[in-house]
Write a structure and sequence with these properties.
alpha+beta, Glutaredoxin, about 50% helix
């Protein structure tokens, strides 16, 4: 079975606007997804890259326009000036990791709930209530946000280390494990689909 390492940050509007396309591609090709949330701000620092707030004005304008276009194309609501962006994504990421480890639920639904909370509903994904709601949406025990915290913190840091070693430099980032083919950005999902089909 093919495996896709999915490196992402909840702070990435582009990861949010990918919607459920990765999951649909995985089902289509009988592939498994290894969800790997990581600290994107720490990644910028490790790579010596500019954080969004420090980028040139032209790039900021382009980001705004691109996110707006993608929101219209995908039909996913997006608040460009989300009240709680950026926030501390670590607690919510720990919860995702705990859900992955627990199994028996829908991890993608947890991620979708958290993304929608921040990018559409102006909620703070660092709040326990928002995290609890997301875990419930995925069919998980909401206590996972507490019981899985230590392991979540360790895995969150390890995901960044592994991602950097694998060559990631943004979010969303997809790596097909058996071929080491890498795909950056939600706009590369079509190519990921074609690659898994053996066409490119």
């Amino acid at each position: 079975m093919k495996q896709i390492d999915y490196y992402f940050s909840l702070l990435s509007g582009f990861a949010y606007l990918a919607g459920d396309r990765l999951e649909k591609i995985a089902v289509k090709h009988d592939a498994t997804i290894n969800y790997k949330p990581y600290d994107i701000m720490a990644m910028f620092e490790a790579l010596g890259a500019q954080k969004p707030a420090d980028r040139p004005e032209g790039r900021k304008v382009y980001r705004t326009q691109e996110l707006t276009r993608l929101s219209k194309k995908t039909g996913l609501p997006l608040k460009l000036n989300a009240q709680f962006w950026p926030t501390n994504a670590a607690p919510a990421s720990y919860a995702i990791i705990a859900a992955v480890n627990a199994g028996g639920g829908d991890v993608a639904a947890v991620i979708t709930s958290l993304n929608h909370a921040m990018w559409a509903d102006d909620k703070n994904i660092a709040d326990d209530a928002v995290i609890t709601e997301a875990l419930k949406a995925g069919g998980f025990d909401p206590q996972l946000s507490m019981t899985g915290m230590l392991q979540g913190a360790e895995t969150y840091a390890r995901n960044l280390e592994e991602g950097l070693a694998a060559g990631i430099f943004g979010s969303p980032f997809y790596i097909v494990k058996d071929s080491d083919e890498r795909f950056w950005g939600q706009n590369s999902l079509e190519d990921l689909d074609l690659h898994l089909a053996g066409k490119i």
